Amino acid sequence: MNDPPSWERPVQWTSSGLPFDLRAVRYVLAAAELLSFSKVALALDARVSTVSRSIRDLEDSIGVSLFERTTMGVRLTDAGSRFLDDILPAIFQIENAIHGHVRQGGVNSGMA
């Protein structure tokens, strides 16, 4: 029996309450540029196994492979390119919101 398409499967929520770990998105962005999980780990002060596992967990949660993995490194799949095209506007919005709050004197911590 075939698995249903990713958009028909229930979202797998993490302990943070998000359907994925935002660090995984950061790793995906870096890997798309650096073409190597090892280079991502070095650049972001993480373990290669953590980078690889985080990206794999994200891929599992959305139901597509974002990277082709080889002994020479990684490269984005077509699905990975579409994912980046879809997620980059949201990443820019998050960055702008954070920088806007920093310019206004800081971000308050805590819950309302």
TrEMBL record:
One of its GO terms (molecular function) is DNA-binding transcription factor activity. InterPro entries: LysR_HTH_N, WH-like_DNA-bd_sf, WH_DNA-bd_sf. Residues 20-77 form the HTH lysR-type domain. Keywords: DNA-binding, Transcription, Transcription regulation. It holds the Pfam family HTH_1. The keyword Transcription regulation applies. It comes from the Bacteria. GO terms for cellular component: protein-DNA complex. Belongs to the LysR transcriptional regulatory family. This is LysR family transcriptional regulator.
